[in-house]
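Protein modeling request. Please complete all fields; requests missing the sequence field cannot be processed.
Requester role: graduate student
Desired output: 3D structure, token encoding
Chains: 1
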Amino acid sequence: MPPITYLFDDFRLDRSARELRRGGAPVTVPTRVFDCLVYLIENRDRAVGRDELVAALWGRVDVSDAQLGQIVLRARRAIGDDGNDQRYIRTMPKFGYRWLVDVRAVESMQADAEARAPESTQSTVEVPSSNERSASASAGGVAAEPPPPPTASSPRPQTRRASLLWLALVVALLAVLAVMAWMRAQHEPPATPANAPATLGALVRPLEVTATPPQDWLRLGGMDALAARLRAGGLRVPPSEAVLALLHAGGEGADADTRLREASGTELLIDGRLGATAQGWHALLLAAPVAGETIRVEADARDALTALRVAADRLLGRLGRVPPDESGPQGALEETLQRANAAMLANQLEVARSILLKAPDLVQAEPQLRYRLAQVDFRAGDLDAVEKVLDSLLEDKPGPKDPALRAGALTGLGTVHLNRGDFARAERDFSAAIAEVEDWHRPLELGQAYGGRGAARAAQGHYPDALQDLARARVELQQAGDAPGQARLDMVEGELELQRGRVDAARPVLERAVAMFERFDAVNERLHSLSMLFACSERRLDHVGALALSDKAWALRARVRDPQLRGQMLVDRAEVLYALGRLLETAALLEESTREAAPRNPEYALRIARLRTRLALDAGHWEEASKFADAALAGDEAPELAGLRAWFRAAATEARIALGSADDASHRANRGDGGGTWDAFARALLDVRGGHADEADADFRLATERADATGTADDLVTVVVAHGRWQLAHGREADAPSTIGRVAAWADRDFRCALLQLELFHRLGASAAWYQALAQAERLAGERTIPPALRQPPHG
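Delivered output (796 residues):
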């Protein structure tokens, strides 16, 4: 058959090239969805039966209505249709589907000629089907992904935070994202009805339970089961742990419900009551909308969870939704699962483990309970046990049929490998998880898996791919109603933008994350985000703004136990206090650091050592500065620490020169690669010492270029201050203004720049400008001293 292109409205579907375009722009669709569109279009003269369409798409007939419904739903979405309007694809009740609109079929060459030239040069990438990706993942390969859009390359910034150490901080944040996402994963029926898009948001609060004897586990376990059922029925329901955090932070009062709706982005607030009766259990659900009457549904059953499930299905019906086909786990399995869930939501890990292990035969036979046991092990920090359980779960023959459960197991493995630093393997795990649920439209699972893969890719330095995955994760988590998950994505996206030197892009998403974490009282995530906002301010030398952010973080320090996070807060605060000239407070924090549990992050120790070295250099304590630099250089030589180590080489050179050890200093300076900011700076100091003016000027300029290329204001100031003072000291007043002018814009916020400008105007005899510069330097000095000579009016 000749290559055929189908044209309808502003769409163009090229069967041979396997691409769909709208208005010339490519629309990326999975393989099976594309095949569904082609089959319906090619048989547009009649209705296509369900079994016929299943056989055409899967090559077999044992496919559920829910699976087919999801493919049709995604086909409709690809062309801007939905289950209500049905402008393109009509559902034929109790039969199948039919294509409605007129289609013009032309040979592809003719279609290309009709298309505009810019459109004809575009291309799209076919997304492999779920089966194709699963096969690739199981074979140990990584499924092909659409290439990222071309971006201009830029050097990685090296800041006074000396690089927000990628493998120590950023990956930690990304791991936090993946861990928390996986720990939120709950087993649910595997499909959302095709005619019920997840648009209505509903929040389920803990249940009120009355029973004798008390059934306390139902308060949270029943809440979680109810939320899972409503989510499977097409509602956008936040994860239970997010709701508990929100309730903890929201407080009481007349406007508590309003605050809860605004924070969660949901319309319905659902309260449930469970009570024991002579015949079993009675469930009552009250769904309160923003406006209008509260919806009330009731149900009775022999056990509590069945009563809740029936009540949930009745509520879905009242909301115009179709309850899911799957009835969910039954009997002992469901009760054991929800008892364990309740204990985990209450952070009672040993209780959850005990509940699961009391039914060893059930745990061994039921994948859901083994999966939940792996989550308990993860929270307990036993990664080996988690990996063993999840590997055995996936290798079982037959393995679990539920794609959501398989995706959860793969996401768990990816999270384990992410935490171990095996990023390539983690990426394969997350890709396989995506393949499991992509055709099912599972927003929560997809959001978790895409977020995890974005973490793995970012850790490998694949920024465009990582940002693409994080963007997809955001869309899915929005559909799932997971506001904290979206905020964690903001946190990670902000860090990625910061690493790329895009401070203006990083700041708004980090501010949005901080605001959301405040609502949910998520202390650790809030502090991570505040630390990155701190870095944004420091990169602009906005020390006052950075201190305000540090104040906010410091107020939460008593609630933090993680040594990594406590260390980050301490060193951030010490650095900004030093920059503001509050030297006594800086020294007190450095002393406090000796009493804190040392974080695993090697960058922390180097940043503390750098502050000690700076204080010693400022005070002219050359022996002490040399000692600190030597100790730092004797430590970890990991590649990601190269920027900090180069700074210590330059500091050691400065101290040795002052001590008269020029030969030793020369040896140290030549240890570097010769091309970085600090190696060029160290050579410039040696040139000055040796009286080599031309070489000194050249090396200072090279160091300035290197600092400027990385966009690191603090490094640039250090180099320019040394270069400008050398020029002034050697009577090169004609050259000094152009050098010193490089940092003049920061003289209103940074003492070093203000003092250098004061020296320039004093030497030039510019009395009016000197007077203004003196006032500015005095305002920024803090506990630092302005040389007496510079306080005397200049001659001229």
